[in-house]
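User: Reviewer 2 asked us to show a designed sequence for the structure in our supplementary figure. I'm pasting the structure tokens here. Could you produce the per-position amino acids so we can include them in the response letter?
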């Protein structure tokens, strides 16, 4: 199943499925992402793979003073779902485009956010080089993504839980295939340390990460530093 087809199918129930599958935990993880970003007055943020704009709204809720957010996602169904929501309706700029080819000038954004999107990128290296290009010097990269649990028991319990996600998809959305795809992309995604090395290979500096829930989820952080 193609990525586009997956999100075409889940778009209309995406937010409710997120709550059900993560038992509401995605809300807490996204708040931790915004905590780390610590949104400052006047900040212009790009939320790549922003889907229905959930992270963008959390940013707008917490930014001190005026902030600007651009949601960028290649799936027009996800973007249309996002546009229907009333909260911060006129405060989000929506752009339909993939992470591999961002239609923005270099040095545009103060921060680049990607939440549960990076594992869908068709070309990770190209996407990271685009992230680097559109960030201003000193700009920050933050990536929230499912990762690898450190503890064996937790990892096994999580695998068992993942195996029932397609069943939940079948019951709620009427199709298990998109959720099989989602669990497959989670298990195929590199470990925290390997992803850190990939980010470092894309010119970013000060790359580090935080594990959440024992590493089931991790936030990677990096900075665009131009050598003098
Ligand atoms: N960021 C949102 C969130 O955390 O709720 C949505 C995440 S959703 C799991 C993944 C998103 O990645 C979908 O909206 C999908 O359209 C988008 N996506 C898929 N391929 C992409 C690509 N090549 N570049 C950017 N986004 C992509």
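Assistant: Here is a per-position design you can include in the supplement:
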């Amino acid at each position: 199943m193609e990525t586009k087809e997956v999100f075409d199918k889940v778009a209309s129930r995406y937010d409710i499925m997120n709550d059900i599958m993560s038992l509401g935990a995605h809300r807490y993880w996204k708040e931790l992402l915004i905590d780390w970003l610590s949104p400052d007055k006047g900040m212009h943020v790009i939320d790549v793979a922003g889907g229905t704009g959930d992270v963008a709204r959390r940013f707008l809720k917490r930014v001190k003073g005026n902030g600007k957010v651009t949601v960028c996602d290649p799936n027009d169904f996800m973007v249309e779902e996002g546009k229907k929501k009333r909260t911060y309706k006129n405060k989000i700029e929506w752009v339909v485009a993939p992470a591999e080819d961002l239609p923005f000038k270099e040095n545009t954004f103060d921060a680049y956010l990607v939440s549960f999107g990076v594992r869908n990128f068709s070309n990770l290296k190209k996407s990271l080089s685009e992230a680097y290009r559109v960030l201003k010097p000193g700009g920050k990269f933050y990536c929230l993504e499912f990762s690898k649990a450190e503890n064996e028991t937790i990892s096994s319990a999580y695998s068992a839980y993942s195996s029932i996600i397609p069943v939940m998809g079948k019951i709620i959305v009427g199709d298990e295939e998109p959720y099989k795809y989602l669990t497959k992309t989670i298990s195929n995604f590199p470990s925290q340390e390997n992803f850190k090395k990939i980010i470092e290979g894309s010119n970013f500096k000060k790359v580090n990460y935080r594990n959440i829930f024992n590493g089931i989820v991790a936030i990677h952080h990096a900075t665009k530093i131009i050598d003098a």
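For the response letter, you might also mention the following. The beta strands are 44-48, 68-72, 92-95, 109-115, 135-146, 205-212, 217-223. The pocket of S-adenosylmethionine is lined by residues 3, 7, 18, 48-51, 54-55, 73-75, 78, 98-100, 115-117, 120-122 (CB under 6 Å).
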